[in-house]
Amino acid sequence: MFARRVMVVGTGYVGLTTGACLASLGHEVVCADIDEAKVERLRRGVVDIVEPGLAELVSEQTSAGRLSFVVGAGVALGSFEDGRAAEVLFLCVPTPMGAGGVADLRAVESVIEEVGAELAPGTVVVNKSTVPVGTAARTAELLDWTRSAAEPDRVSRSDVAVVSNPEFLREGSAVKDFLGPDRIVVGSDNQDAAERVAALYARLGAPTVLTDAASAELMKYAANCFLAMKLSYVNAMAELCERVGADIGDVTEGIGYDRRIGQAFLSPGPGWGGSCLPKDTHALLQVADSADFEFRLLRATIDTNTRQRQRIVDKVRLAVTGKRTGSLSRVRLALLGLTFKAGTDDLRDSPALAIAALLRQAGAELVGFDPAFVDGKDGAAPPTEIEGVALAADAVSAAQGAEAVLVLTEWPMFRTLDWSVIASAMKRPIVVDTRNVVDPATLRRAGLTAVGLGRRGEG
Ligand SMILES: NC(=O)C1=CN([C@@H]2O[C@H](COP(=O)(O)OP(=O)(O)OC[C@H]3O[C@@H](n4cnc5c(N)ncnc54)[C@H](O)[C@@H]3O)[C@@H](O)[C@H]2O)C=CC1
Ligand SMILES: O=C(O)[C@H]1O[C@H](OP(=O)(O)OP(=O)(O)OC[C@H]2O[C@@H](n3ccc(=O)[nH]c3=O)[C@H](O)[C@@H]2O)[C@H](O)[C@@H](O)[C@@H]1O
């Protein structure tokens, strides 16, 4: 295997995982970020995000001399051993939702503007950020522009190839997903560059799809939007189960045995969220719009998800007041789980927080507990409040005086809480389990009324 000199720009979930994992595959990796404090912490081996195995991998690879951290992409360029040039530059910067739902590519563009003219001939620029179709072509144009600005007599950067290599890792299992991917996708109009990028991962032995840049870019959105569609379908099916007296657990188990459907990603919930599915569904809708294609299925997927949050609020209202139009004014509610899913401390586009905002608008008083925020970061005290939700130190304290407990993420610890202690702390014994994660029989034995999603006999 060839060890390559790899520069990774952006040290978030994707960049830090990419950097540490590529180093563990034997490559020399320099990671750059604009966040000086983050780089300083990473140099001390402090990883801010909750990601199993990542901190260990970072310190192992740093000690082995294969992984280092610098502030700014420009500095990274000159940071390889013996002053040699980076061979591959990974862009792992944010591409958040911009105005009207389009992907905001300013971070990608600013890195190219920063270092484009300095890249050594033969460098491969790899886009790992999730970007709309056409971004590889646009990046190549930008590269030409940076060179022409720096060296007016040289207007082409055909000596630098651009490759799309979307990432499919999930938060909470980033290292495991990166090192054991279902597939690796590499797309470029420069076949040689694509093969060089694929070779970086050769030791993983994963199926590799080599394709053109546009197909690789679209594949990433196609995957995330398909997952979102699967979940909106399941959430709609759960609602139908309630109306016809069927059980969503049985229905999904039954359809999941069909290998064409599969058991994974079939759990109903408070709606899908996180830093990617929401922005990527909107971004693909914009891609479709600009291609004059009305992607109705995708729009319905998003609309179903938006409606799901209100549906949870309606369920709480009915459970607590006994009426569909009852008032939640000054009703105290305990929220278990505030992140977008269990196993992460990521709050970006969290359905739990969206539901909290709707409940607050309805006048409810909220106290939350989330296992991800029990300890503070880097020696600091844990937060006392998240987006207007006061934080309690444990589930029992959160439930004190509450008229209902809402389970909003699927942390395994919620299953094994002592629910009878929680029941005795509450003002009224109601649990709305938006993830169907706690055994309803356990709740009933603790004297609690259990309300889940799409469960037989719960209405
Ligand atoms: N979070 C996830 O699970 C996945 C994310 N993606 C995609 O990967 C990209 C990055 O996402 P995350 O890692 O979640 O983002 P993040 O927000 O966790 O990290 C991004 C990092 O880039 C840094 N940064 C921003 N501008 C920079 C610049 N000009 N130079 C150097 N550093 C800069 C930020 O300071 C931050 O540390 C996005 O396009 C996202 O859609 C793809 C697959 C999975
Ligand atoms: O592009 C990305 O950033 C990533 O987006 C998702 O990963 P992630 O955002 O970490 O979260 P998921 O595990 O996919 O969950 C997304 C949302 O769906 C919800 N979900 C998931 C599974 C399920 O059965 N039910 C359900 O409600 C989760 O609670 C969460 O709100 C994809 O799964 C990754 O493959 C992709 O790389």
Helix content estimate = 40-55%
| Major β-sheet profile | 7 strands, mixed
How confident overall, as mean pLDDT? 95
Q: What is the CATH top level name of the largest domain?
A: Alpha Beta
- Output the radius of gyration: 24 Å
Class from helix and strand fractions: alpha/beta
What characteristic shape results from the CA principal axes? globular
Low-confidence residue ranges:
none
Quaternary organisation: single chain
CATH superfamily of the largest domain: NAD(P)-binding Rossmann-like Domain
Strand segment count:
15
Beta strand %: 5-15%
Strand order of the largest sheet: 11-12-10-9-13-14-15
Q: Helix count, per DSSP?
A: 17
- What distance lies between the first and last C-alpha atoms, to the nearest angstrom? 59 Å
Catalytic activity: UDP-alpha-D-glucose + 2 NAD(+) + H2O = UDP-alpha-D-glucuronate + 2 NADH + 3 H(+)
Keywords: NAD, Oxidoreductase
Protein name: UDP-glucose 6-dehydrogenase
EC number: 1.1.1.22
Describe the structure.
The mean pLDDT is 95. The chain has helices at residues 13-24, 36-43, 54-63, 73-77, 106-115, 135-150, 174-179, 191-200, 213-244, 248-256, 277-290, 296-321, 351-361, 395-399, 412-415, 419-425, 440-445, and strands spanning 5-9, 28-33, 67-71, 88-91, 124-127, 161-164, 184-187, 208-211, 332-336, 365-369, 385-386, 389-391, 404-407, 430-433, 449-451. The chain starts with a strand and ends in an 8-residue tail after the last strand. The protein is built from 17 helices and 15 strands. It is globular and about 75 Å long. By secondary structure, it is an alpha/beta fold. Bound molecules: 1,4-dihydronicotinamide adenine dinucleotide and uridine-5'-diphosphate-glucuronic acid (UGA). Uridine-5'-diphosphate-glucuronic acid binds next to α9. The site of uridine-5'-diphosphate-glucuronic acid (UGA) has 21 residues, from α9.
